[in-house]
Design brief:
The complex is a heterodimer. Chain A is an all-beta fold. In chain A, about 0% of the residues lie in helices and about 55% in strands. Chain B is an all-beta fold. Chain B contains no helices and eleven strands. The chains are: A mainly beta, B mainly beta. At the A-B interface, strand 3, strand 4, strand 8 and strand 9 of A face strand 5, strand 6, strand 9 and strand 10 of B.
Chain lengths: ~120, ~120
């Protein structure tokens, strides 16, 4: 499959452990944040989102934490499974000039799950 | 399968040429987005359309243009191609054009078109 990035930071975890992937965002005016998962050869897949008026949101096995004070976002994956191996991107949403919106993506983190 | 389709899957062309990438959004989605993913630039937003109108522009070169047709499919036109334009081009779609309260802004990505310029 295609390589998403040759020099991505990599997080290697044991199957069954919890994973934490971190992301720093740049714009304090961003109002919405999303985590995406990208497997080799596929397009990004939505995992979980959070609005700027929240600091925590939970999904199935995933939790997103937002710290607006330090402009930091994290994704926690509980009981990591081999199928979680992928590149994970955070994205921040900003309003454009014409009521449009643009997502700015972080550089990505490669998660490798060891069986 | 996200429900977003993109054609072609692969495209190989020479420098100076022009190509058109096509995207069909998920049924019911009015907003379409184009992204470029390259090894050195990562995933970058290019442009957004909503119901046929351009809504937001990102780092899209003047050699690139896009449009959304009345049937909501979209095309991305890349002209005067350069080696550096080689990348994966993704289309995404969403119901709402923005993260509005009560509306889903989840963007569903297609499988991408891999463009190789030689």
């Amino acid at each position: 499959g295609e390589s998403v990035g040759l020099h991505l930071p990599t997080l290697s975890v044991q199957e069954g452990d919890n994973s934490i992937i971190n992301c720093a965002y740049s714009n304090s005016a961003s109002d919405y944040f999303i985590w995406y998962k990208q497997e080799s050869g596929k397009g990004p897949q939505f995992i979980i989102d959070i609005r700027s008026n929240m600091d925590k949101r939970q999904g199935q096995r995933v939790t997103v934490l937002l710290n607006k004070t330090v402009k930091h976002l994290s994704l926690q994956i509980a009981a990591t499974q081999p199928g979680d191996s992928a590149v994970y991107f955070c994205a921040e949403n900003r309003r454009g000039d014409n009521a449009g919106n643009m997502l700015t993506f972080g550089g990505g983190t490669r998660l490798m799950v060891k069986p | 399968d996200s429900g977003v389709t993109q054609t072609p899957k692969h495209l190989i062309t020479a420098t100076g040429q022009r190509v058109t990438l096509r995207c069909s959004p998920r049924s019911g989605d009015l907003s379409v987005y184009w992204y470029q993913q390259s090894l050195d630039q990562g995933l970058q937003f290019l442009i957004q359309y909503y119901n046929g109108e351009e809504r937001a522009k990102g780092n899209i070169l003047e050699r690139f243009s896009a449009q959304q047709f009345p049937d909501l499919h979209s095309e991305l036109n890349l002209s005067s191609l350069e080696l550096g334009d080689s990348a994966l081009y993704f289309c995404a779609s969403s119901v709402a054009p923005a993260p509005l309260i009560g509306s889903s802004y989840e963007q569903y990505f297609g499988p991408g078109t891999r463009l190789t310029v030689t």
